Amino acid sequence: MIKAAILGYGTVGSGVYEVIRKNRDIITDRLGEEIQVKYVLDLREFEGDPVQEVLVHDADTIINDAEIAIVCETMGGEHPAYEFTKRALESGKSVCTSNKELVEKHGPELIKIAKEHKCSYLFEASVGGGIPIIRPLRTSLAQEEILSITGILNGTTNYILTKMENEGLAFETVLARAQEKGYAEKNPDADILGYDACRKIAILSSLAYGKKVNFEDITTEGITAITAVDFAYAKKMGATIKLFAKSVKKGDKYYALVAPFIVGPENPLYAVKGVFNAILVNCNMGGETMYYGKGAGKLATASAVVADVLDCARHVGKHLDIRWEEQKLEISPIDGAVRKFFVRVSCTDEAKIRKHFGDVEMYTDIVAGECGFVTEEMTEAEYREKAAKFGSVLSMIRVD
Ligand code: HSE
After folding, report:
1. pLDDT single digits (tens) 3-41
2. Torsion of CA 111, 33, 124, 122, to 10 degrees
3. 182 pLDDT exceeds 90?
4. Residue 92 alpha carbon to ligand 1 centre in Å
5. Distance (Å, rounded) from C-alpha 151 to C-alpha 139?
6. H-helix or E-strand containing 148?
7. Which residue has the least CA distance to atom 7 on ligand 1?
8. Which residues are catalytic?
9. pTM of this prediction exceeds 0.85
């Protein structure tokens, strides 16, 4: 029997407890031995909940118990999760976490400590909730050079954009309704401004390229400026608008960006609707693979934590290596990134537009007094220069 502990009995922690309890027979059958949750750490009491029997209020009880082989850190936030994780790893206990913030900030250090103490630090649930993506990057794609990762990594924004598209509503209206129904946070900034997706692509890019990508180095734009009119143009193009979190390797340069993109139906991410997340990985040998599922939610996220628990249980006393050095990966300024741009201008003079932007595909008749067009490929720097010279640009959305 493998003994485990859960740090934090919130949404994910209680989900981990439930997955291990409800799927006990399946897990025991597949693993060849039972996983028993010996302790759950939380400051609160949970009267009437069976968890009460294993509830403890002091992390030392867990850290000092030599029987505990695996710790699930589902507390969230940096402190005290960082200190508890470090102490657990230093005691030779593997840690499985859903804590994106901790992984993004301290991932390489915690992996190194795990290596030194012959245990593992696994974090499948920290990106994409229940979607297997960290393990494929670590194992199935270990032989590949990863050329690009493009993700819809935030369910709240994908839900809002899907509603705007389907119902022709304004961003503010959909956000307010989503908040009323509890689909969006009361303070939705981390989602709608793109910061949540940014942390997630920072983790995925670090794993893909082996060095630390700092989320502060990633240009991040949210979806707050997207309007119903933008969707009317996208519809005319036979396309949609998605918040993409992207990283690309071009020669010896790396680019990363979180921003809304015009996406056509030929892209498999076009079909990802509502709260679902998906990640498209392009590799130099096997080409594209895509990973799809629930990016958040109690049981989906908990299931990913428990997948890591099983991995650790199969490798007690060994380190499951993840290549992620503390050395920083230089992210090039996006000025040099090449793509097409969808531009709306408060002018309908096609000759003037072509004079400034070159050969463009025009979209007229959506709103009186303005028009939209898609440019040919150019660098971000070139686009900015042309837009500044042209003057009457209303908005720009990058085209995938
Ligand atoms: N708020 C996130 C989302 C889930 O909407 O996808 C947690 O990462």
Report:
1. 999 999 999 999 999 999 999 999 999 999 999 999 999
2. -10
3. no
4. 31
5. 19
6. strand 146-152
7. 296
8. 200
9. yes
